[in-house]
Write a structure and sequence with these properties.
The chain is mainly alpha-helical. Helices cover about 70% and strands about 0% of the residues. The chain has one domain. The model has no long low-confidence stretch (mean pLDDT about 90).
């Protein structure tokens, strides 16, 4: 015998799961300390400087 599923409840459960997944992504992205954000900015800047220093055409961006 097949199990009876309430579609309204299933839809709400799916929406809750999607919201929770979005919340996890936002926590990972925005839930960092000031020092972590600053470190990431410094790493990105040093990588950019390194790549710019090794360009063949210095005048091209």
């Amino acid at each position: 015998m097949a199990e009876v599923v309430n579609l309204r409840q299933a839809r709400k459960q799916k929406a809750r799961a999607a919201k929770e997944q979005a919340a996890d992504q936002n926590r990972a992205l925005h839930g960092r300390s000031k020092a972590e954000k600053q470190r990431d900015r410094q790493v990105a800047e040093s990588a950019k400087t390194f790549l710019d220093g090794h360009r063949r055409d210095k005048d091209r961006p």
